[in-house]
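WARN retry 2 of 3 for item q-0093 after timeout on previous attempt; input resubmitted unchanged.
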Amino acid sequence: MTTPKHCLVTGAAGFIGSHLCDRLLLLGHTVTGLDSLITGRLANLETAKTYNTFNFLEQDTAAITPSTLEGIDWVFHLSGLADLVPSIENPGKYYHANVHSTFALLDACRHAQIQRFIYTASSTCYGIPDRYPTPETYPCSPEHPYALTKYLGEQLVMHWAKVYSLPALSLRLFNVYGPRSRTTGAYGAVFGVFLAQKLGGQPFTVVGDGTQTRDFTFVSDVVEAFVKAAGSDLTGEIINVCSGEPQSVLTLVELLEGPIVHIPKRPGEPDCTWGDIAKAKTLLGWQPQVSFPEGVSQMLANIDLWREAPVWTPDSIQEATKEWFERLGKN
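OK item q-0093 returned
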């Protein structure tokens, strides 16, 4: 058992951040959760708030100073903006949230002499790769501002590890799913869209022919990767975190059980996401534990969490993704 640490989790009220808070607290660590609540939800922290070793700060990550980090041992940086479409519409907002905020946090950590810094990167940095499973050494080619800003944040982290000897790791997450995944906002992740459609009695909107595959990874497995990363002595490494077993959208539809309607394939999206997890297994001693059918079953058991989510239709999706098609010039 690792000696209990005082952990800072940015984006604590978000999907993955809240699960990470719960896990760290269960392991006996003290946790300070930080979130601006622009996209995070306090409801996600109901479990964390039952621990007297948890406290919450409503604050923008960009406003962090070394004094904010007084007494902090480990920093888990999960705050930021997700979603592809809004990043195309407002790249400046994404630059602030995903790049500027990361810079501000890193510099505060440098001065505060933090013991461990774990960054949440995105597999979207690979763009549309032609090598599967995709290793961490594959050249990055972001297709949209969200992917670019997450990649730039990762480059900052690696630079601080090299130049300032900040003990930092970057975990490149693939398609994470599980309870508490976002239920509102712009058109986004397939799980939230499909579960809301199932509740609303609408057909599943399958992009293209549905044979495209995604490396779906259950949130509890992702959280364990964060814990193992923090407890390791590694630094300056970029590590894929994924299941290593991609599943087709049609397989997901079969498990969810419902009618489908096809919508046009979207530019800038790969036909496959499939990460090479050899590095995670070797360096972290980590591998996923939750099978895809088991994970989908858990999602269905918690389907009521998506009752407030928008129910997308082919027409509303077309309107929401209009700029996506226009900006990438492939409408």
